[in-house]
Design brief:
about 160 residues; mainly beta; OB fold (Dihydrolipoamide Acetyltransferase, E2P); Glycosyl hydrolase fold; 1 helix; about 40% strand; Gp5/Type VI secretion system Vgr protein OB-fold domain-containing protein; Vgr_OB-fold_dom_sf; Gp5/Vgr_OB
Length: about 160
């Protein structure tokens, strides 16, 4: 009994694998498996922490099934997990390896990129299909690209190519 009780009262944080996003309550919770505890061990539905959450507002970005999650348990109670964040690992790598880049990329390939390189700062919004909006501080330009064409605004001029 002591071993089972110890498994039910985890201390610290743990790594779990996202098993399901189908929260029956519609509250944006996820369910995890814990391979290190055996194939049958699943979490209760766990809320996902986010930088902002409130009535009709917030930051909503759910993981994918199979992602690694860093989970803690309220007062060490295995039945009350909450997700602290998600982890890259040896097989799932970050979308970029440049420290001066900030990227949000969806599984479908849409991307919001902030490039903070000295002298080359820009913001890029890109769709999976290749449509793109680039705001380039170094060039003092805004460019819309799509369908093999581009519209650039720079120095009070508009150029269509």
């Amino acid at each position: 009994m002591a071993g089972v009780e110890a498994m039910r009262k985890p201390s610290g944080v743990a790594v779990g694998i996202v098993e399901s996003l189908e929260d029956p309550t519609g509250q944006g919770k996820i369910r995890l498996s814990f391979p290190w505890m055996g194939p049958a061990m699943k979490s209760a539905w766990a809320p996902v922490s986010t930088p902002l959450a409130g009535k009709d507002r917030g930051c909503f970005m759910m993981p994918e099934v199979g992602d690694e999650a860093l989970v803690a348990f309220e007062h060490g109670d295995f039945d009350h997990p909450f997700i602290l964040g998600f982890l890259w690992n040896g097989s799932d790598l970050p979308p970029e390896n440049e420290p001066q880049m900030r990227i949000i990329r969806t599984p479908g390939g849409h991307e919001l990129r902030f490039e903070d390189k000295p002298g080359a700062k820009k913001v890029v919004v890109k769709t999976e299909g290749g449509l793109m909006l680039t705001m380039d501080d170094a060039q003092q330009s805004i460019t819309l690209t799509g369908g093999g064409r581009a519209v650039t605004m720079q120095s009070g001029q508009v150029k269509i190519t």
